[in-house]
Sequence to fold (401 residues):
Amino acid sequence: MNKEIENDTNSNASAQQAAFLRIPVEKVARLMDIVGELGLSVSETINSPDLKGIELDEFEKSAHRLKMIVREIQDISTELRQVEIGEVFRRMRRMIRELERQTDKKINLVFEGEEVEIDKVVVDRLYEPLVHIVRNSADHGLESTAERIACGKPDAGTITLSATQVGGDINITIADDGRGLHRERILAKARERGLFGINEEPSDDMLWKVIFQPGFSTAEAVTNLSGRGVGMDVLNNTIKELRGRITIHSVWGVGARVTLSIPLTLAFLDSLVVRVGNRLYATPIDVVSEIFQPLDSQITHISADNNIEVVKVRDSFIPVCRLNKFYGESDDMQIALSSQIIVVFNTSQGQVGLPVDEIFDQQQVVMKPLPSSLGKIRASLGCALLGTGEVATVLDCEQLV
Fold:
């Protein structure tokens, strides 16, 4: 009887093992590249100028079905390269044990949302940033055992790593129940470096951004863990390269929370393609709030020289960002807002309106990094290859605010 049970167990294990294949990441990446090229080729064929004026029965129906099949292949190939975020989280355990020994603190490491999946390429790039944030939480965030007991907190500090999927983004949060960020100390250091005026009182969101400045540190002593003022700017650059963003929330004496919002995949982007002047731009579709053509009564100019425009939408005033002004180009022939279309984006700093001349299409585009000579274009996440053979600049709406 025992032999039969053992044989059944071995058979189940073998069956489970046979249900999986080990595939090198390079092969999956190559597949995704080919699928991207396939999507472009299909779009080029369907949108070929040679087809204009030709009536082809059932062509539209067949073309639509072909696009849906390609879209499904793109989604499936993207899933092939996804792994559970818990794979990265669990690598932190050993480091936490080492940090306990080095800092003489008690640290509980808690995981939430380990089963959330994310692109393997993103996961590999995320490890170092996560290490840096966890080190800062352990070294600067969590108090010593004696301090925690004196404050009425448990003697062991807690660092929580959690992940959730929100639309096309993965939100990874690193939270601790330590002392939090010292607003007065950070503000004093920022004023010392000329980042804020003597009498300027920035909001918390604006103030926390200064810690990403190169060399910025308020640590009174340098340790082998942190305090040198390096790392946070590298972290910020890495997250930007991943088309992500960082938000910080902190309450002094209660703790701090750092959230990294990263796209689910870097290969394909669901986007809205627009034209401004003779240039094409693509924006992530999930940050688009609404699209409308404004009336003259909705448009207001503020500031002494009337160079700041806002548009009223219901009971809110939304700042307008003209791309020609944003990029420092001439505005001698500036078009009236009432003759343009306003695309409103949601950002971490509030909404922003982008005037565009034409809206082309909502489509899934193939993302490519910009060449090194163009890599410093402001508010750019890279370029998108369109089915028409044209190239669009992918806008980072966070930087348009």
Remarks:
- The longest strand covers residues 156-166.
- Residues 383 and 393 are 5 Å apart (CA to CA).
- Residues 22-81 form one domain.
- The longest helix spans residues 25-46.
